[in-house]
Amino acid sequence: MLGFIFKRLLATIPVLGMVALFVFFMLRMTPGDPAAVLAGDNGTPQQIEEIREQLGLNQSIPTQLVIWFGKLLQGDLGESFYFKKPVTQLILFRVEPTLALATVTLIITILIAVPLGVIAAYRHGSWIDRLVMGFSVLGFSVPVFVMGYLLIYIFAIELKLFPVQGYRSISDGFWPFLHRLFLPGATLSVIYIALIARITRASMLEVLDEEYIRTARSKGVKERVVLLSHALRNAAVPIVTVIGIGIALLIGGVVVTESVYNIPGLGRLTVDAVLGRDYPTIQAVILLFSFVYVIINLAVDLVYCLLDPRIRY
Amino acid sequence: MIFRRTVKCVIVLALILVLAVSFGQIALAETTLRVVMHSDLKIVDPIWTTAYMSRNYGYMVYDTLFAMDEKLDIKPQMVESYSVSEDKLTYTFTLRDGLLWHDGAPVKAEDAVASVKRWGQKDSLGQKLMEFTRELKVVDDKTFKLILKEPFGLVMMALAKPSSNVPFIMPKRIADTPANEQISEYVGSGPFIFKVEDWKPGDKAVFVKNPTYKPRSEPSSWASGAKVVKVDRVEWISMPDHQTAVNALIAGEIDFIEQPPHDLLPLLEPESDTIALVNVNPLGNQYMFRLNHLHPPFNNQKLRRAALAAIQQEDFLKAVIGDPNWYKVCPAMFVCGTPLATDAGTEIVMKSDFDLAKKLLKEGSYDGTPVVVMQSTDLAVLTNLAPVAAQALKRAGFNVDLQSMDWQTLVSRRAKKEPPSEGGWNVFLTAWVAADILNPIMAAGFSANCDKAWFGWPCDEKMEQLRDAFVRETDPEKQKKLAEQIQVRAMEVVTHASAGQYYVPSAWRRDRVDGVLNGPVPYFWNITKK
What we know:
The structure holds two protein chains of two kinds. Chain A is mainly α. Helix content of chain A is 78%, strand content 0%. The longest helix of chain A has 38 residues. By secondary structure, chain B is an alpha+beta fold. The longest helix of chain B is centred in the N-terminal third of the chain and has 28 residues. The two termini of chain B are 47 Å apart.
């Protein structure tokens, strides 16, 4: 097992190297000049040229690549063109809100989606099943920003139960932290609830037809135990896979939610950096996302072992 | 029973917690003004960049030698008194008593000299002033002299320049930073202190009242007069989603929005009991229609005139702003309501004349060369301009290629001198804060010195002679006549055209905020918060 983990971690190095190269060249091919943005709307051609020189953007692309890669190998992700702060500092400041939002979303999703899926499978064909599937279709169909504004209008503006926007760190207290994250978490979780409830239902339906379930029932095992201990556990592998993919998607999918609820997380940092052509920040954030994706996939593979003893690495 | 008691205890504790948090928020909000500006604060050197957010930051942290008031008169600000020699070549300035930097050190003449020199390297009007300057020298701790080589008619206007780049005064050690490098220390002598340790890029920038600031005794008027700070703290909260900002204002989570977009004003208008919606910038902004003189078809003067004949101001204003309360059809390129405002020469852009446009196309032997019109799609205040221009040009007979892109791509692409087929361009439209274009030197669009001119690179010797005469002229009446000739010439050679004036109101909580000042820049002194 340790050998497997070591090999997988080792495999992240070429993956990240390829991502770094891809991102570097993609950015240089994208229209837009950071110097023109930095100079401001009234910037003159001379000012833009001076800034290009200062940022090293007048050097050839291979030279820029060598300089960036050299720094990267030393663990230096560079300095933001705008804020004159190390990119690592900007990312560290933005990681907490995004992680907090992703965690709250995940908790809401799992707490709602898995029971819904199990109940829908158990009551297969009934009105409950149809209701859950109907909700699932709705969850997929409504764009995140529409759901966000809808929840804000109902729960923040009309009912005044939650704030419209903003983020409070958990260090400011658990209640303010949760109070501000509940609506964004609920907004973002809708699509994942829809996805995971469907997968749970499908997996459960497959497992509920198995002979060992029939055997358990014929032995007089209580239905709750049959569902949770026998069926759900055996249906868990595809569910965990989808949750894993969901976490990975969440990291990138928080962009809209962070904008609608004004949460200063990694999603907004990425959008701001892309709009401003802040190359060092974009490169660093995409490298981070790639690393997170690789680690989540590894974690999902390891969870398989716990859920299904037949799986060994 | 035990379970019920536990549940009750949890509910009571939760209520206490909610109340404590609410009271905590109220206590904190008493003198903290929470503001959503038009953009996030990114660069904290208002000389290094022309970005308006950096300019706004500058007005918080720094002070200026002179400032413009609401009558567009120039008033001393950090300067106590000044004199001009009879030959108009020597200006002597004396600083006010009691001016202190945020670190407690006194403001000295050497600081002012170093700051003006740094600004003079970056700003276009400052560069012009420096061309005419023989010497800028310190006389004593409070006095310095500006000695010119020959008379320069815009000395006071330059030192009181209201918008980017504003000649803010910094401590000498900071102002000695090369103009091409950003400063790394944020000490000023202005009415607010920047809390750099609380600055979270992309989240908020925090300013606190400067307790040692010594306001002038005259009443506040734009950036001149008393800058009396009446709140303890101002927070600029970064909120890129306008809808969220409007919701937050209605819910009372913020106090002030600098520029809510026009399409969201109908959401705020019904809330007039609690939310004030006021145009605090009476001069407003002006749209600019800009052509590229380097490449066909607009390297041909007749075809440039044909383009002007095709467009008309009101079409742009109706398409973008919509509500006539927030726009004004204005023939004056130096902005209606200002000393240099004139209608001369601009009739051609006031009403589309497609017959004239077609005639000019024929005279100019237009061969169907595609006209690349760049459209910015991500700024609501600009998005609809390019399609309106494209439609008018098509109707006149131009072969138009409308290309959509984000604003950052547009500002990068407009700097390209290559032909449109190789990534260049023919037409783009943008907007200027009116305070940036009050005369033909500040207004970058009038420069016609070929390669050194603003994007579009017009090349016209007569225009440059007129602009040169303007800066040398010290008599306001004669300056006005020259400005009129410059405007007429601009229309003849088509450096650019005004596509109309528009206004963006600010919105604030009427029940909490009072004392908001008018001006071309958002000022946060004089504001009280209940």
